[in-house]
Amino acid sequence: MVNLPVKPVVLLGFMGSGKSTLGKQLAALLGWGFIDLDRFIETLENKTIPEIFSQDGEEAFRKIESMALQKVLNYNCQVIAIGGGAPCQPENLNLIKEKSQSVYLKISEAQLATRLAYSNTPRPLLNGKSESETQIFIRDLLAARELFYNQADIIIESDVITADMIASRL
Ligand code: S3P
Hints:
This protein is an alpha/beta fold. The protein has helices spanning 19-30, 37-45, 49-56, 58-72, 90-99, 109-118, 131-149, 163-169; strands spanning 9-12, 33-36, 78-81, 101-106, 154-157. A five-stranded parallel beta sheet has the order 2-3-1-4-5, with helices on both faces. It binds shikimate-3-phosphate. Shikimate-3-phosphate (S3P) binds next to loops.
């Protein structure tokens, strides 16, 4: 931690991987600020994420997400939790690689499925899916997204990740 850079730390990973919870804890540990990209977008747009998806569509959301990401990556000494789809656009990933230290919170598929089944966070991509449809959806989407997630600077693979574990790898 002695050589901790000032450039932001970006936490990335699938929905339900604990980015926001761990991000807040890590920021407190480092004495840094914390930005949750989805909350940042909601403030910018004055709409919730589900409202953006239902009123404007996913494509519009992705454009807003890229724009918001560009903004927050300019702030130093911040831990930034980003939505599960944010690093999966090549231009976003390039920017993350250039401007931050990125950490992939790699949680098993089974653990993600359990967490998402019990989560109260509304997630438009999971809307209207049965339990078995959700499981297949998670498996397929995770397989596609890992190509991007695996390019993070640091990969922490565990179903029980703590802020201390992340801090010790920075
Ligand atoms: C999304 C993940 C969500 C949110 C949006 C889309 C995704 O964030 O950005 O619903 O594409 O995986 P979390 O990863 O914090 O759930």
